[in-house]
Amino acid sequence: METQILHRDRKHYQIAYGLSVFTILYNLAEGLGSTFLGFEDGSLALLGFGSDSFIEVISGLGIAHMVLRIRENPLSKRDQFEKRALQITGIAFYILVIGLVISSSINLWNGHAPETTLWGLIISVLSIVVMSILVSWKRKVGKALNSEPILADANCTLVCIYMSIILLFSSGLYLWIGIPYIDSLGTLALAYFALKEGNECFEKAKSEKYCSCSH
Known about the structure:
By secondary structure, the chain is mainly alpha-helical. The chain has 7 helices and no strands.
């Protein structure tokens, strides 16, 4: 019976690691596509969303490492690699916030309007679908392993969904109404969530806390 439990746990940890690797690769692809299309279309919200995806890649490396660590010792504490990844991620989020706030303020002042936000609409819908599946799957694995870190990672992934909803709303509203400042306001909303993520990264790096996101 004990052998069966160990085999089942190993299988779930393999799934958890696979999900973390997929998250990294997806965010990398999403970042490349979003930043390129955001730059081409003049959509600051899409460009900021893509930049956030690149930062999530750094965070994802820490998560993948975490899964390997707790697989070997479920009661082990966060190690130096994970703390450093959190610190780098937090700094990157703060830099992103500064860039988004300054850029959106300039765009609001100049009345800049993107050529189109169609790609923002498409990418946000795709992201919501993919991230929702990831949250559900990570929660399933986390519950099977009774693992607080994996469950916390699933809940932190919800922030990606919230940011995708902001992009969806701002992109869709611009396509519908065409008011120039909507894209910039959407960017400021993204900056707000990026700031919260940055703060949380440093909080987690200083403690054994995993995620303060709602369950």
